[in-house]
Amino acid sequence: MICYTLDSNTISYMLRNEGDAQRNFVREIDVFGNKYTIPFIVMHEVKQWLTYRPTKTSKERNEKFDELFAKVIVQAEMPINVWEKATEIYIELRSKGQMIGGADILIAAYCLVNGYTLVTRNIKDFERIEGLRLVNWF
């Protein structure tokens, strides 16, 4: 069984029915019985996107996201070992001059510590992090 961690861009594609994200999600979860998690930092990013400039569809998308988040089986907290791993990643990337955003570092650390596979379209940034398993469902 695989446990996937959904990045905010993957969730936004799912909520907007863009690309193959939703179809791949259904296949992996419903057909193959894999699990998923949404770290609280991703929840925060998605909620900001959904509420900053409300539209007619944002209420519907917000409800759809709340349903998705409510079905998360795996604990989405970030204990101290995730924060410590994030510091290691930050130091390594900074020393190479290959920085990425702080939220992305936390998401990567969360995946590495827990052995999860990150589902993102942002392969270019995340591939800089050694050992991080990535998949693009778009």
Structural class: alpha/beta
Spatial gap, N to C terminus: 21 Å
Helix content: 55-70%
What is the topology, as strand order, of the major beta sheet? 2-1-3-4
Multimeric organization = single chain
Uncertain runs are: none
Strand content: 5-15%
Globular, elongated, flat, extended or rod-shaped: what is the shape?
globular
| Chain-averaged pLDDT | 93
**Major sheet summary line:** 4 strands, parallel
How big is the Rg?
A: 15 Å
How many DSSP-defined strands?
A: 4
Secondary-structure element pattern, one letter each: EHHEHHHHEHE
Q: What is the overall number of helices?
A: 7
Please tell me about this protein's structure.
59% of the residues lie in helices and 9% in strands. By secondary structure, the chain is an alpha/beta fold. The protein has 2 domains: 3-70, no CATH class; 80-135, Rossmann fold. The chain has a 4-stranded parallel β-sheet. Helix 7 (123-126) links the parallel strand 3 (117-119) and strand 4 (134-135). It is globular and about 45 Å long.
Task: Tag the structure with descriptive keywords.
Rossmann fold, 138 residues, single chain, alpha/beta, globular
Task: Please outline the helices and strands.
Elements: E1 3-6, H1 8-16, H2 21-31, E2 35-37, H3 40-52, H4 56-70, H5 80-96, H6 102-114, E3 117-119, H7 123-126, E4 134-135
Parallel strand pairs: 1-2, 1-3, 3-4
Helix pairs in contact: 1-3, 3-4, 5-6
